[in-house]
Amino acid sequence: MPAPTLIAFDADDTLWPNQPHYDQAEAQLYELLTHYADADTLSRRFNEVQRRDLPLLGYGAKSFIICMVETIISLTDGRVTGREIQQILDHGKRLLDYPIEPLPDVRAVLDVLQEQGHRLMLLTKGDLFDQESKLARSGLGDYFAHVEIVSEKNEATYRRLLQRYGLRPEQFVMIGNSLKSDVLPVARLGARAVHVPYHTTWVMEEVPAEQLVGVPFHRVEALAEVVTYLEALADDDA
């Protein structure tokens, strides 16, 4: 395969922490609402509501807030108080403006790739306003020649992006922490996928092991290893 001409990076939990903020907000809300149900019951119902509502609401803090409110209204048969709903809203809103600090090695990796002349893309899914705000707060925007914020990362989305940028699959590399969103659909199209594991994964992004059988992708233990991997691809193409 030829060396890639476009290298795309996922954002949340690849370039900066995201899921830990949601995990913390969720735990705080469960503590707030513990007089209605235990944490396991709340978590189970919340995940059911999110799974059901994702096609309608999409991803991000606003979806999180709506699903949490819907969960507690359902669990309490409407007995939840207005004050408690306001507390849910306040916790959720904090997910829209927390400071963005790039993960270790992110700037160093992007510096090297930019110096080597690679064309870089930020490719993330979620709410447009929320993701644009995160990118602005991260200070990483100048590294990317292209920014794509999509509602879903599936084969149809990647196929559409390849067509938009006039690329064959073998000219594209996707780098991210999600096997579901950053690896499987990319590999199935014949493009290169690089998995950078993160210590926590949202339950909606988990993938059964059997879905990975026979799927070709490259795994690195840290983002810094991406540079070596891309250099090897260039050497193979030389």
Question: How would you characterize this protein structure?
Answer:
The chain is an alpha/beta fold and 238 residues long. The protein has two domains: 6-16 and 101-236, HAD superfamily/HAD-like (Rossmann fold, 3-Layer(aba) Sandwich), CATH 3.40.50; 19-95, Orthogonal Bundle (DNA polymerase, domain 1), CATH 1.10.150. It is 48% helix and 11% strand. It has nine helices and six strands; from the N terminus they run βαααααβαβαβαββα. It has a six-stranded parallel beta sheet with strand order 3-2-1-4-5-6, sandwiched between helices. α6 links the parallel β2 and β3. α2 packs across α3. The mean pLDDT is 95.
In short:
This protein has 238 residues and is α/β, with parallel strands linked by helices.
Key descriptive features of the protein:
elongated; alpha/beta; 48% helix; Rossmann fold; DNA polymerase, domain 1; 2 domains; 238 residues; 9 helices
Number of continuous helical runs: 9
Largest sheet composition: 6 strands, parallel
Strand order of the largest sheet: 3-2-1-4-5-6
Look at the structure and name the CATH superfamily of the largest domain.
HAD superfamily/HAD-like
Q: Beta-sheet strand percentage?
A: 5-15%
Task: Please count the beta strands (DSSP E, at least 2 residues each).
Answer: 6
